[in-house]
Amino acid sequence: MRGTGRLAGPLLGGLIIDNLGDRSLWSACAVLGTVVAVGYCLLRGPLRATLHPTAPPVGARERELAHEGQG
Question: Which of 13, 21, 44, 54 has the least C-beta neighbours within 10 A?
Fold first, then answer.
């Protein structure tokens, strides 16, 4: 699968630049990157709970350490 991405990325990028321009390529990268980042953030909590059911919630340890530092 890795080889497919390494082959398709430059080919698709070249096609987009040739036909639609560089601004379209960068806009598509920004949109795709934003969608992936939002999806990751939305799935991070449920995925962690599924993979590690006994793990504390995300950020719980940091809040605990911050609370200990105040006291």
Answer: 54
- The span from the CA of 50 to the CA of 44, in Å, is 10
Assigned domain for 53 exists = yes
DSSP H helical ranges for 52-70: 60-70
Binned at pLDDT 50, 70 and 90, residue 43 comes out as: confident
Long-range contacts, stretch 36-45, CB < 8 angstroms, 24+ apart: none
CA distances from 67 to 25, 28, 60 (A): 46, 43, 11
What are 13-23's pLDDT values in tens digits? 999 999 999 99
- Count how many domains the chain has: 1
Query: Residue 55 falls within a domain, yes or no?
Result: yes
pTM recorded for the entire structure:
0.54
